[in-house]
Protein: Alpha-1,6-mannosyl-glycoprotein 2-beta-N-acetylglucosaminyltransferase
Amino acid sequence: QVHNRSEYLQHVISSLRKSRDISTALLIFSHDHYSDEINDIVLSVDFCPVMQIYYPYSQQLYSKEFPGEDPRDCPRDASKEKAESLNCLNKDTPDKYGHYREAKYTQTKHHWFWKLNHVFDHLEVTKLYEGLYLFIEEDHYLVEDFIHILRLMDRLRSSSCTDCNMMTLGTYDKKPKYEGIHNQVDVMSWMSSKHNMGMAFNKKTWVEIKKCGTAFCQMDDYNWDWSLHFVSLSCIPSKLKVMMMKAPRVFHIGECGLHAKGKNCNPSERVQFIEGLVAANEKYLYPRYMTISGYPAQVKKVSLLPKLNGGWGDTRDQHLCASFMEAHSHS
Structure:
C-alpha cells in the first residue's frame, strides 16, 4: 500500500530486489496518490512481475468533496450546537467522542479495505490463486529470506496449526535478535498493535474477514488494524489466530507516518541499522525448518474488546467502505 513517500518506497523496493525467489512473486502496488516520481520508481522494478492498482476515491481525486474535505463539512472540533448553527453536512454524525471526520485519517482504512476486496475478488490474475498474500506498506523493509520463511510457515501451519489463519513476519521488538530463535514462531490470538506488520493470509481467511465486513465498516475506529482486531474478537467465529516469527523478517522504517510529529525522519539511517543487524545474523537466515516455540498467554484476557479510537462516525464513510464489498464494483 503506497501513499506518497518516495524515499521509503525506494528502500522497500531495494529490499525486495535483494530477496531470494522474488521473481516467483507478483508484486502489486496499491496507490492512493498519483505522482510521476512514484510511477517512475515503480517502473524501475525489473526483478518480478508488477501490477499497479489505484484506489478510486482518493483525496487527490476528490479534493473538495467527500471522501475528501468538503467545504460544507463540519470542522472536526465543532460542538453539536455549533454544527447545528452552521448546518454543515455531517452535523448528525460525529464519532463517539463528539468529533467530526477528518478526510486524511479516514483514507487509510478505506484504501486498505478497498485493496483487499480488489486483489482477492476483482482481479483476473488472482482468481484461481489459493496461496498466501503478503501485505506490506511503503515504509516496510524486508529481509532477503522472507519468501523462504513464508513457505516454511505455511508448511508448519498445514502440519501443526491448522487453525492459524494469519501469519506475521514483523515484530515491534526494540532489540530484535536471531540467535536461538531464528526458526521459531509463537502462536496466539491476533492483536492489532502487535501483529499488523508483514501480515500474510490466504483467500479462506479473507472470506472470514469479509463476512464481517459490515461490522468492520461500521466500527467507529479510523484504524483498519484496530477495526480488524475488534471484528476478530466480536464477529469472526474462529477469531484470528496468528503464527508470528520471533526473529523478524519485516521491519518498519517509517518515522514520519500519519501521527508522527517532529520525529527524526531519516529512513536511510534506519535502513543502515537493519542491514547491519541482518548482516551480523546472516548465518541464521534460511533455516531448514520451523518450529512452534510456544503459545504465549495474552497480557489481558483476549475476550476484552479494545477501546475504539473514533474518527469513523460519519455514515458516509461507513457506506463507502461497505460498497467495496459489492460484486465487481469499483474495479
Observations:
- The CA atoms of residues 59 and 204 lie 32 Å apart.
- Residues 6-57+100-323 form a domain with the Spore Coat Polysaccharide Biosynthesis Protein SpsA; Chain A fold (CATH 3.90.550.10).
